[in-house]
Design goal:
Length: 333
């Protein structure tokens, strides 16, 4: 074995003994390869958006941006009370711009990733006090949105119902006019699931299990409707929901009153156009997988770290190290 061969062999042995280094090399190489592959992926959004609530003061924008990892590449929009009436509740005459507090960022994700939602703490405070990350994810999916990551925050405590306004407005700005029947049906699911989640607020895993069960039933409804072009009866939907709740282990935690509310919202879903969409079945499966085992406010913790200052610095250091390593290998020849 010549000197060069011995040197390369020593390098390979050293790398094999260093799990951290080997992992870094693999991850950097994979990331470079994946980024090229992702260039060919089709996402529902062409770019990223941040939508500030009209009631959020501009003095808070900088902190809101930092909280949601928003940079200058994001297109900036504002969600108003009129937007709320357009996308959420057209019968609401009392909501004002000042009441539109929560803000959201929406980032395109790879095809097949479904929807992931992170509710971010603002200056260490959890200011979204009612709606859960899992509700946002499944409701947005049922409205016709997919393959995105949503970050939600607020500069002061709010319930969070209006945050979806920003998501829907961003899609409209991107050229996707969501069907009002779909958004209305999705919003009814949001309202219907809230009571059950409130009753189980002490169980951090309940919201994920419930929304996965709701997703399961919506998928079954769409499949049955599309296979025989017939409506599923309300009693059958109730049976399907009870089975799904049992499968997720929360049937004994969900009262009959709450089950009935959710069944009624799923009947509304069945009557909306999205239940006839063949792509919905695959899309909702991805989001079910995202929410079913999630708990708490963060469904995409890896994104949180990758987009953080420490994450970006670590990625750059790894890239620089790998480039130096390749250059050194080449110098041996």
């Amino acid at each position: 074995m010549n000197k060069t061969s011995r040197t390369i062999a020593a390098v390979l042995i050293a790398l094999s003994l260093s799990g951290a280094v080997t992992t870094t090399v693999h991850n950097v190489a994979y990331a470079a390869e994946q980024s090229q592959s992702d260039d060919n992926q089709v996402s529902t959004l062409k770019k990223s958006y941040v939508v500030y609530g009209a009631g959020a003061p501009q003095s808070a924008y900088s902190e809101l941006n930092d909280t949601m990892d928003v940079d200058n590449s994001y297109q900036k929009l504002t969600a108003t009370a009129d937007d709320y009436r357009q996308y959420i509740d057209n019968n609401d005459s009392s909501t004002t711009d000042a009441a539109m507090i929560s803000s959201v960022s929406i980032t395109p994700a790879g095809s097949g990733s479904g929807i992931k939602v992170n509710i971010r703490k603002y200056n260490g405070h959890s200011n979204i006090t009612k709606v859960t990350a899992q509700q946002y994810a499944m409701v947005a999916q049922m409205a016709g949105v997919t393959d995105i990551t949503i970050d939600v925050t607020s500069n002061k405590p709010v319930t969070g119902e209006s945050a979806l306004t920003g998501v829907y407005k961003a899609f409209a700005a991107d050229g996707h006019q969501l069907n009002p029947q779909n958004t209305s049906a999705a919003n009814s699911v949001m309202n219907a699931t809230q009571g059950a989640i409130d009753e189980n607020s002490g169980d951090s895993s309940y919201a994920g299990k419930l929304m996965a069960a709701v997703g399961d039933v919506s998928k079954q409804i769409a499949q049955k409707k599309q296979s025989n072009n017939q409506q599923v009866s309300k009693s059958d939907i109730e049976d399907m929901l009870n089975d799904a709740l049992k499968k997720r282990g929360i049937d004994n935690k969900t009262s009959n009153t709450q089950v009935n509310k959710i069944v009624n919202s799923l009947v509304t879903f069945q009557n909306s156009p999205i239940s006839s969409s063949k792509t919905y079945v695959n899309n909702v499966t991805n989001t079910i997988n995202n929410v079913k085992n999630s708990s708490g406010d963060l469904m995409n913790k890896a994104k949180s770290w990758i987009n953080s200052k420490d994450g970006k610095e670590t990625q750059q250091q790894a890239t620089n190290w790998f480039q130096r390593f390749i250059a050194w290998i080449r110098s041996l020849f």
